[in-house]
Specification:
α4 packs antiparallel against α5. With about 375 residues, the chain is α/β, with parallel strands linked by helices. About 30% of the residues lie in helices and about 30% in strands. The N and C termini lie far apart (about 55 Å). Among the domains are: about 150 residues, HUPs (Rossmann fold, 3-Layer(aba) Sandwich), CATH 3.40.50; about 60 residues, SH3 type barrels (Roll). The protein is built from ten helices and 17 strands. The strands form four sheets. It has a six-stranded antiparallel β-barrel. Strands 3-2-1-4-7 form a five-stranded parallel sheet, with helices on both faces. The protein has a four-stranded mixed sheet with strand order 9-8-11-10, with no helix packed on it.
Length: about 375
């Protein structure tokens, strides 16, 4: 009989999730490790060699570590759910002129639901992952995600979409540690190969990091039709041609295909006319934006009230003080200082100190 009950641990084969499982095992939990097969490796790589998280070697690493410590491990196939929801959204968002957040969608709609479904089947009260974040129940009774202790690894930005019923059963054991601590724990536990294992920062189904090539393979007819679109200046002057607006993102500077006397950036993408607008860095600045499909954690909603928050518009963003207002089913964000590189489709995450108030997807500029 385990000391703390049974817990399902998501194991990718990397050092973070492996140490998560080791920590819980040593604390007296009955650990069941699960590795999720999300995509077809050969199809996603376009014939290139694949490495990183979720590849076959990583699945074997997760299984071998679990077996060596005497706890159960299983592989679950969620390719069908993943392909329809995540890869389908990824391609459709780019074709709509937006920049998608596949990791946020995967966490919110696929991984947590898949983990909790299996947890219920196996009588596991809790689930755990190797995210650098923390979760706790606030004094108002709501469950809230907070930033991880290591600012260089904090994952709270990609976890804003988790709902209360899921957060209540979630644990992040490594959230109170630095990455260096986790590597040291792996060595001390007898797994030095995990401590030295390289990390993957690519999207899991695009291991070669070539999302343009991926789009061309997945949507050959649609992307071919978009070639020879116009590159326009902010004043509407034609500057050249592009090979398809889905291959651009707001704030992009490199790979524009034209040479000018000053640096230019993508300031707008107009799918309805297959045009990409270029401007100066100053032209990227915005003082407001709209956020769709919001999910709130620390508070239930913003109905009828304003709230002050620090808003991040991308993962590495330091955040900007802002005022939030609910307008219908969207959040209007007024920044207290200009913000650059606001890309529709990306996540906006609202913070109260280290706590996640909530978040949503950045909408197009017009109300």
């Amino acid at each position: 009989m385990s000391k703390h009950g049974r817990i399902l641990v998501a194991m990718s084969g990397g050092v973070d999730s492996s140490v998560t499982a080791l920590m819980l095992h040593e604390q007296g939990y009955e650990v069941i490790g699960v590795t999720m097969k999300t995509w077809d490796y050969a199809d996603a790589s376009g014939g290139k060699r694949i490495t990183g998280c979720c590849d076959l070697d990583s699945i074997n690493d997760a299984r071998n570590m679990a077996v060596s410590r005497g706890f159960h491990h299983m592989i679950i196939d969620i390719r069908e759910e993943f392909g329809g929801a995540i890869i389908g959204n990824f391609t459709s968002e780019y074709l709509a002129g937006r920049t998608p957040n596949p990791c946020v969608l995967c966490n919110t709609f696929i991984k947590w639901e898949a983990l909790l479904k299996r947890a219920d089947m196996m009588d596991c009260q809790l689930i755990a992952t190797g995210h650098y974040a923390q979760v706790r129940q606030h004094v108002n009774g709501r469950w809230v995600v907070s930033k991880g202790l290591d600012p260089a690894k904090d994952h709270s930005y990609v976890l804003w979409g988790l709902e209360q019923k899921n957060l209540a059963r979630t644990r992040f054991p490594i959230g109170g540690f630095h990455k260096s601590d986790i590597r040291r724990m792996a060595v001390d536990s007898g797994f030095p190969e995990l401590a030295s294992k390289s990390e993957s920062y690519e999207i899991c189904f695009i291991p070669d990091n070539d999302y343009r090539g991926f789009l061309k393979r997945k949507e050959p007819e649609a992307t071919a039709k978009l070639a020879h679109g116009k590159l326009l200046s902010m004043a509407g002057e034609e500057l050249g041609e592009h090979d398809g607006y889905p291959f651009f993102t707001i704030g992009q500077r490199k790979g524009l295909g034209i040479a000018t006397g000053e640096p230019l950036y993508v300031t707008d993408i107009r799918p309805e006319t297959n045009t990409v607008v270029l401007g100066r860095k100053l032209d990227l600045e915005r003082t407001s934006m709209w956020v769709r499909r919001p999910n709130f954690q620390k508070v239930a909603a913003l109905e009828g009230q304003e709230m002050e928050a620090v808003t991040k518009v991308r993962y590495k963003d330091k955040g900007t003080p802002s005022t939030l207002r609910m307008d219908g089913d969207r959040v209007q964000v007024e920044f207290h200082a200009p913000v650059t590189g606001i890309a529709p489709g990306q996540s906006a995450v609202f913070y109260d100190g280290d706590d996640v108030l909530g978040g949503g997807f950045i909408d197009r500029k017009d109300p």
